[in-house]
UniProtKB/TrEMBL annotation, chain A:
It comes from the Bacteria. The keyword Transport applies. This is ABC transporter ATP-binding protein. Keywords: ATP-binding, Nucleotide-binding, Transport. It holds the Pfam family ABC_tran. Coiled coil: none annotated. Belongs to the ABC transporter superfamily. Macrolide exporter (TC 3.A.1.122) family. CDD domains: ABC_MJ0796_LolCDE_FtsE (cd03255). Gene3D superfamilies: P-loop containing nucleotide triphosphate hydrolases (3.40.50.300). It comes from Aquimarina muelleri. The lineage of its organism: Bacteria, Pseudomonadati, Bacteroidota, Flavobacteriia, Flavobacteriales. SUPFAM superfamilies: P-loop containing nucleoside triphosphate hydrolases. GO terms for molecular function: ATP binding; ATP hydrolysis activity; transmembrane transporter activity. InterPro entries: AAA+_ATPase, ABC_transporter-like_ATP-bd, ABC_transporter-like_CS, ABC_transpr_LolD-like, MacB-like_ATP-bd, P-loop_NTPase.
UniProtKB/TrEMBL annotation, chain B:
The chain crosses the membrane at residues 21-43, 287-308, 333-360, 380-404, 425-449, 670-698, 725-747, 759-782. This is ABC transporter permease. InterPro entries: ABC3_permease_C (IPR003838), MacB_PCD (IPR025857), Macrolide_Exporter_MacB (IPR050250). It comes from the Bacteria. It is a multi-pass membrane protein. It is found in: Cell membrane. Residues 292-407, 676-785 form the ABC3 transporter permease C-terminal domain. One of its GO terms (molecular function) is transmembrane transporter activity. GO terms for cellular component: plasma membrane. Residues 20-236 form the MacB-like periplasmic core domain. Keywords: Cell membrane, Membrane, Transmembrane, Transmembrane helix. It comes from Aquimarina muelleri. Pfam families: FtsX, MacB_PCD.
Length: 231, 796
């Protein structure tokens, strides 16, 4: 599904140029669950952003589902993102002015899905995330775990091929964290590809494969034997 | 999608209620000002346009050129209209309109009607004034016919039908005659430069009391209007007038060395564009001034809007990021934000309707005219208001929408986001623009008020206090009244005059011997007075003597002039003019004295050459100086005498000082309106500043926390936060001061007697702007600086 070759990304400030990704090669197959780990500033999130088509690389190739997407303009990237990709963030990033239902409904609106169909899909996914009883609440009225469940619901409501999770448990206590990880595992088992950035060893054990980044380069790759361990 | 946007917009507005209130109110005040000014300008521009034939109606005006003078008259001579009609086939009809004052009475009331006209019979055919009863073509045909307005009819006849009823009327020409009401008209529209409560037939003069008027080429009195065929070229018609004048009065023009030319002014331009006056007239300059103010105020309101929205963009950044990640395109987001700003603008327009409804009566009062009785009268007005709001919403929303929709989700979702430098520079620029406008308006207001104060308190060169002016008619009874009042307790002095300072005065075509011994032709202002006037009004004699009963010839062959006349005739000192020959309105004699120049007209005009002669047959005013004590008592005693001596005449009087100040009414209204708008401009600017400071302090919360931890005092922090904005106001002042100086210098040039622009006027404006800004800024700065730093650092 994802094929990345010789990827480079640098950030330039007035005086310094920082190389965030240096010659990264990565392949992710459909149905895989990949965790990206590494110390702060190693380029994890930059890589995730490029995979998520939120940013462009400076050099190298990025094929998504057989299509080269590394050099696309923002609007073109948006078009591919829509419906194909779902995002889960550490800080949830729900829109405060919208209710739970409306937040989850939003991606379907941008996909021009009909109203009746939208309602059905949103209800289904809310049920599944066990948050249906809160559909009329606003994000601030929910606990962190509940907010992240809403965020996951929003990420999966369009049935994306790929879910990108940026430290999804970073702001959660361990109980809620485990719940979220179990949800992601469940989605993965149903066929969704997941790429997750994490600091947590515990979370990385849910993945099939762990990639360690250091100073913008992939230093080690390891396979997890036990998949979906319940810790 | 659309529903989603609207929902978000309203929830956002509600969540940030304070901000929304500032934003909506600022815009609403701006819209209100803009709209009220639009109503005013629209009203001024609508004058005389309601006549269906207004495109083919012209006012006939005349220039008279003498060897020394060019007199621009608003009226041609009395004979011109009927002769034009006779000689030019292009002209369909000609109407003379003469302003007159009438003493009107019936068995119910007696009143002095100052708002009356005499008009030719085709008046109602030419103009579209609405008739309630009576036939357009015939109501003004017969002598001693009168048409009254509905309001006037009510005064004299109550609810009875006035048609066929009679009114007793007299003035200087009409000697207590019975007039028959032949027509009832609706009250004339306010936006008409011809405005009268009653109209008497011109035939009353031409066939009744002054029969030779149609062939009278010497008096430049009634205004004249002609209706021409629609295909007539007015310029071509004008080009034939010299020949017409040559044929009719060529000889007498050469004899008097006074050459007349006639011109046509389109009816629609008379009110605003004619420099000749003659009727109520508007001022194109104030229309420009107020239009510019309206644009400025709307601009200030738009700037607020842009500033507050972009300042808040940090808060909306997350939403933009999320939406983009989820699949929103840039254009969709831009549309969403423009939509939001349109919603805010439309809400503001609804609030402004409330403001307008509340303010309209006050605005009518300040501007001195009923510009609009209600905003709902004209649906087009509401349409304009909503359209303007929509346009502002779109225009002012575009920049913030562009900024917001350009945010990169990668940055904003990571929280590493801050507003760019460019945005800050722009916001500062906009604040400077706002305050430049506001400060310039404050300076303008200070200068206008000082000029008004100056005009009201300037030494006028005559006594104007405690002088009562009684409006009498020339008659033996009038002399009897004066005699009676002379002996009344509380009355200090009386005199009979044709004019008093500040009121209308005659101008007389005169021949005066100049320095070179030639008889010079001049159109001079003329006061016709009695022996007592000069001493009663406290005029200073600078050469020769005042009129005196000791000289028998003073009543027939003597003239007193002012210093300006001495100058006009070329004499180097007042002494030299004494004994110079004059000839004026059939009187011949010598100049016997010179008075010091005094302001017999408003300070807007230069003092003009003035002549004074004794003429008991022209003095229809009785000036009475009364003691400052027991004014009420004296007044009622005077009225009692009046009722005894002049039982048929309405008792009408005014105080000279009040009447003199009334000349400045237009300027005063201008000043008041200007003040209102200046205050509003400041208010909107401050609302904007308030919102901006609120967000700026919010953004610097962490910085403030750190500074406090490191030992900064509250004062230090307040100074830090205020300095930035006060600097902006300072820069605005530096731009505004020369701008205001330049504009106000131009404005002051309209006044013959004016104040000098002083440095302290700028200082006051500058200091008050800084103070107002400081108070506004401090409100938030203090709030932010007293917060416990632990709290602000933690929330970061």
């Amino acid at each position: 599904m994802i094929q990345i070759e010789k990827l480079k990304k640098s950030f330039r400030t007035e005086e310094v140029e920082t190389l965030a990704l240096n010659n990264v090669n990565l392949k992710v197959e459909t149905g895989e669950f990949v965790a990206i780990m590494g110390p702060s500033g190693c380029g994890k999130s930059t890589l995730l952003n490029i995979i998520g088509m939120l940013d462009n690389p400076n050099e190298g190739y990025y094929h998504f589902d057989g299509q080269e997407v590394g050099g696309l303009k923002e609007n073109q990237r948006t078009k591919i993102r829509k419906g194909n990709l779902g995002f889960v963030f550490q800080s949830f990033n729900l829109i405060d002015e919208l209710t739970v239902f409306e937040n989850v409904e939003l991606p379907l609106i941008y996909l021009n899905v009909k109203k009746s169909e939208r309602e059905q899909k949103v209800r289904q996914v809310l049920e599944r995330m066990k948050i249906a009883h809160r559909e009329k609440h606003f994000p601030q009225q929910l606990s962190g775990g509940q907010q992240q469940r809403v965020a996951i619901a929003r990420a999966v409501v369009t049935n994306p091929k790929l879910i990108l999770a940026d430290e999804p448990t970073g702001n959660l206590d361990s109980k809620n964290g485990i719940e979220v990880m179990n949800l992601l595992t469940e989605l993965n088992q149903e066929g969704t590809t997941i790429v997750m950035v994490t600091h947590s060893d515990r979370d990385s054990h849910y993945a099939h494969r762990v990639i360690n980044l250091f100073d913008g380069q992939i230093v080690t790759e390891s396979q997890n034997r036990a998949i979906g361990v319940q810790l | 999608m659309f529903k989603n946007y609207v929902k978000i917009a309203f929830r956002n507005l509600w969540r940030h209620r304070g901000f929304s209130l500032i934003n909506i109110c600022g815009l609403a005040i701006g819209l209100t000002c803009g709209f009220l000014i639009l109503l005013y300008v629209g009203f001024e521009l609508s004058y005389d346009r309601f006549h269906s034939k207004s495109n083919s109606i012209y006012r006939v005006v005349a220039d008279i050129k003498t060897p020394t003078d060019l007199m621009e008259m608003s009226r041609p001579s009395c004979a011109v209209p009927p002769h034009l009609l006779k000689e030019f086939p292009e002209i369909i009809s000609a109407v003379r309109v003469m302003n007159i004052t009438l003493d009107v009475r019936n068995d119910r009331v007696k009143l002095k009607e100052k708002n009356a006209i005499a008009a030719d019979s085709s008046f109602f055919n030419m103009f579209d004034f609405k008739l309630v009863q009576g036939d357009r073509s015939s109501i003004l045909k017969e002598p001693f016919s009168i048409v009254v307005s509905q309001t006037t009819a009510k005064k004299y006849f109550g609810n009875e039908n006035p048609i066929g009823k009679t009114l007793k009327i007299k003035n200087e020409d009409i000697d207590d005659r019975s007039f028959t009401v032949t027509g009832l008209m609706q009250d004339m529209p306010k936006n008409s430069h011809i405005h009268a409560d009653m109209i008497i037939s011109m035939t009353t003069y031409t066939q009744g009391v002054l029969t030779d008027l149609d062939d009278y080429w010497g008096t430049y009195d009634p205004s004249a209007y002609i209706l021409v065929h629609s295909n007539t070229d007015p310029k071509y018609l004008e080009s034939k007038f010299p020949e017409f004048l040559e044929k009719n009065i060529g000889e007498s023009m050469r004899e008097d060395k006074a050459y007349v030319s006639l011109f046509l002014e389109p009816l629609k331009e008379v009110y605003l564009h004619s420099p000749r006056g003659g009727t109520i007239s508007g001022d194109m300059n104030s229309i420009y001034v107020f239009s510019i103010i309206a644009i400025f105020i709307l601009l200030i309101a738009c700037i607020n809007f842009i500033n507050l929205t972009t300042a808040r963009s940090v808060e909306r950044a997350k939403e933009v990021g999320v939406r983009k990640v989820i699949g929103a395109q840039k254009q969709q987001l831009a549309l969403q934000f423009i939509g939001e700003s349109i919603i805010i603008a439309l809400l503001a327009s609804i609030v402004s309707i409330v403001f307008i409804v509340l303010l309209l009566p006050t605005f009518n009062a300040i501007s001195g005219k009923i510009i609009s009785s209600s905003i709902f009268v004209n649906p087009a007005h509401l349409g304009i208001l909503f359209f303007t709001a929509f346009a502002i919403g779109t225009l002012a929303g575009t920049y913030p929408a562009f900024v917001l929709s350009s945010f990169k989700p990668v940055h904003v979702l990571k929280g590493s986001f801050s507003t760019g430098k460019r945005g800050v520079v722009l916001r500062k620029g906009l604040v400077i623009t706002q305050f430049t406008i506001a400060i310039a308006l404050i300076i303008g207001t200070i200068i206008i008020y000082n000029q008004m104060h100056f005009m009201r308190n300037q030494e006028l060169g005559f006594n104007k206090d405690q002088i009562l002016v009684l409006e009498t008619n020339i008659s033996p009874a009038q002399k009897e009244l004066k005699y009676n009042l002379d002996n009344l307790k509380g009355v200090l002095s009386t005199s009979l005059v044709s004019s008093v300072p500040g009121a209308y005065n005659n101008t007389a075509y005169s021949l005066m011997k100049n320095k070179d011994g030639e008889e010079q032709v001049a159109n001079l202002d003329a006061f016709f007075i009695d022996y007592n006037f000069i001493s009663q009004f406290g005029l200073d004699i600078v050469a020769g003597r005042s009129f005196s009963r000791d000289f028998a010839t003073d009543s027939t062959e003597a003239m007193v002039v002012n210093e300006k006349t001495v100058e006009l005739l070329g004499y180097s000192s007042p002494q030299e003019i004494l004994g110079a020959h004059f000839s004026q309105w059939g009187k011949n004699g010598e100049v016997i004295g010179v008075v010091k120049d005094f302001h017999f007209r408003s300070l807007q005009q230069n003092i003009r050459p003035l002549t004074m002669t004794i003429a008991p047959d022209r003095t229809d005013l009785l000036a009475v100086t009364i003691s400052a004590k027991n004014i009420e008592e004296t007044l009622s005693a005077i009225q009692q005498k009046w009722e005894v001596v002049l039982p048929d005449d309405p008792f009408n009087f005014y105080f000279l000082d009040e009447a003199f100040d009334l000349q400045y009414r237009t300027q005063e209204r201008f000043g008041n309106l200007f003040l209102c708008f200046a205050v509003l401009a400041i208010l909107i600017s401050c609302l904007g500043l308030l919102g901006l400071v609120a967000y700026s302090t919010l953004q610097r919360k962490r910085e403030i926390g750190i500074r406090k931890v490191l030992g900064a005092s509250v004062t230090k922090v307040v100074t830090l936060l205020s300095k930035e904005f006060i600097t902006l106001v300072g820069i605005a002042f530096i731009i505004a001061a020369p701008l205001a100086w330049f504009i106000m210098k131009y404005w002051l040039e309209d006044f013959a007697y004016r104040i000098e622009i002083q440095w302290w006027m700028f200082a006051i404006a500058g200091i008050s702007a800084v103070l107002i800004a400081l108070v506004t800024v401090s409100f938030h700065a203090i709030k932010a600086s007293v917060v416990n730093p632990v709290k602000s650092l933690r929330t970061e």
